Amino acid sequence: MTSVLITIGRGTGTPIKQQLYDQIRKKIIKGELAFGDKLPSSRELADELHISRNLIVEVYEQLVSEGYLETKAGSGTYVAKGAYLERSFDSDEYSVFGEHLVAEEDVIDFRSGIPALDMFPRKTWGFIARRVYRDAPPEVFGYRHPEGEFILRHTLSQYLSRTRGVKCHPDQLIITSGATQAFGLIARLLGSRNSEVVIEDPVTHEIQTIFSSAGFRFHPVPVDDYGMKTEHISAQNPAFIFVTPSHQFPLGGVLTIQRRIQLIHFARQTGCYIVEDDYDSEFRYHGTPVSCMQGLDPERVVYIGTFSKILSPALRLGYLILPPDLTKKCRDLKWFSDLHSSTFEQLVLAQFMKEGHLEKHISKMKKIYRKRREKLIDCLNKRFSNKVSIHGDSTGLHLVAEFKGITFSDETMRNIDAHRVKVYPVELHTIQKSAHSNKIILGYGNLGLEQIEEGIARLESVLKYSY
Ligand SMILES: Cc1ncc(COP(=O)(O)O)c(C=O)c1O
C-alpha cells in the first residue's frame, strides 16, 4: 500500500472533503501516485487524518466515478490507468497576479498609451458597480443586443456631441471591446469593396497587423507635424482611409482643417469611407480642444473611440459610430464576433458618466499628465539640450523625441534595455522603413515624476556615447 501523505488544514476556509479530493487528484495527475498504486483503506486513512471515515468513502467514490481510481472487489482501491498527465498545469502554483503580469522590477517603461494605472477611480467605480448589480432587473443578466446598452449609447452620444463635436443618434453607436475590436469589425465591414487602405505612415504596428491579416494592402501616406500629407494620396479606389486626426499616432500632429477637407472631398469622390481613430484627444494641453472629423461629414466618417486611455485598458470598452447605412451590417458582425460586450461594465460606465464622474476624472488626470509631460520635456531638454527636438506633445499620453545624429538601431536598443529603461523607436510603427530612425516614442501616462527623471538620466547615460 502506498503512503498518500495528505495534510488537512483546519480553519483554511476550504472544506476537509475538498482538500482531500484536491490532494489525491493532484497526486494522481502529477504521477506521485502511479497506475496500480494501492490507496490506504478508508478506515486507515480516517484514523491517520483524524477525520470521519464517511468523508473518505465519499471522496474515493467521487474519484472512482471520474476515472482516477478503481476498486477491486475484496482487494481495495487502486490508481486507475491513464490518469497521469505529463507537465500538468497546477493552478495552485500560479497566482492570478503571477510574475508574468507584474512589471519588471526597477525597469522604467516609457510604453505609450498606458494611463496612470494607480489612479483608476476604484472607490467610485466599485460603489456604482455594487449599486448596479444590486438593482439591475433579472433580464440584464441574460443575453443582450450586439450594439450594447441603450443607456450607455445615449449618454455617450450626448457626451461626444458636447466634447468632440460628434453628430450621431445613439442607434449609430456600437459598443465594442476596445478600439481594437472596432478595427477588426471595420476591416470585415469595409473589406469586400476593395483591398487597399490609405493609411498614415507611421501608424501603430497593431493596427497594421489587424488590417493586413484581414487581407488589406497598404497605400502608406507620410506624416508631418500636421498629420497625414494628403497631397501624397494617389490611390484610385481604396476601401477606406485610416487617420488619427486629433493626435496622429505616434508622431502627434493635429490634422489641419485644409487636409481634413481634402480627405472628405477625396472620400466623396471615390465613394470610400474615412475611419477616424480618436483614441486620446481628451487630454489636450494647449489651446482649445480639436473637434473630430466625424462632425464634418457623418455620412462618410466612421468614428472610433475608447475608454482605455481615459479610464483603463482593462475595461475593454470602446465604441464605433457609423453612418446609418453601415449600422445594421456592423451590428451583425459584432454579434458574430462575441454577441455583445459585458453588460455590467457598460451599465456601470453609463452611471459613472451620468453622475459626472468621467468629466471630473478627466479634468483631474489632465492636471497630473500635464505635470508629467512638463517634467519629461524639461528632463529631455536638460539632458540633451540642442540634440533633441520634441514632436506631438500637445495632446495625449506620449510624445516623440527626435535625436540629432542618433540611430535607434537594434544595438542601441539593446544598450538602452540593459540600462533598465524601455523606450520605443518610431520605426517599429513605420511601413516604409528608415524615415524615422532617429526618433523614439516616450509614453509618460503611467510614470511618476521621479521615474521620468531617472528614466531620462538612464537614457542619457547610454546615448551620450552615440553622438
Ligand atoms: C492609435 C491607437 N488607437 C487605439 C488604441 C486603443 O486600443 P484599445 O481601445 O483596444 O485599448 C491604441 C492603444 O494603444 C492606439 O495606440
UniProtKB/TrEMBL annotation:
The keyword 4Fe-4S does not apply. Residues 14-82 form the HTH gntR-type domain. Coiled coil: none annotated. Its cofactor is pyridoxal 5'-phosphate. One of its GO terms (molecular function) is transaminase activity. Keywords: Aminotransferase, DNA-binding, Pyridoxal phosphate, Transcription, Transcription regulation, Transferase. In the C-terminal section; belongs to the class-I pyridoxal-phosphate-dependent aminotransferase family. This is Transcriptional regulator, GntR family with aminotransferase domain. The lineage of its organism: Bacteria, Bacillati, Bacillota, Bacilli, Bacillales.
